[in-house]
Amino acid sequence: AQKVTQAQTEISVVEKEDVTLDCVYETRDTTYYLFWYKQPPSGELVFLIRRNSFDEQNEISGRYSWNFQKSTSSFNFTITASQVVDSAVYFCALSEAVGNTGFQKLVFGTGTRLLVSP
Amino acid sequence: DSGVTQTPKHLITATGQRVTLRCSPRSGDLSVYWYQQSLDQGLQFLIQYYNGEERAKGNILERFSAQQFPDLHSELNLSSLELGDSALYFCASSARGTGIPEAFFGQGTRLTVV
User: Is residue B17 over pLDDT 60?
Assistant: First the structure.
């Protein structure tokens, strides 16, 4: 079965510091999708990025960037110049086929709590 | 705003009771997914419906059931509630039944069982 490991339980930084959240995954599928979500204190899951396994190009969106490395099965997330509003729990997720149904579900990591102090 | 609507946002109920959580998918989406986020189990997939039919099942308890109606909204029914059922329940929807898994979730229903 698929597995997602987010080894960092909690990270504390001071505003304007750069921070990287690690995500390591295990899968036997050749085609799969990786996701990052943000869960602020209000509880909703905010979609940040979806990347398919054939696209190893790094992606940048404003202060956010993602480094996908198939060779090490990692999909790390970096926030540059962190802000207090970045404080949240961040989840990495991996798609997994559900039996032979042709459908897929998401397998989530345990999340990394990021605390950004002023 | 993901376009997926969940009601109610909060629910407090007693052990042994039954509750119904509702999810309205994005316009045009045929597939609905339910996930549970609890302190001990984390975020896990419960069940998926596509165009009214159950298509995939995850770690869903027998006390829980779901359905999808002709207007495509879905309901998750939780019965004989236990303290451990306290969790955030999320719904996601997708236009496709297969292929790319969906990315957008509703705001969740926080269930507290006392």
Answer: yes
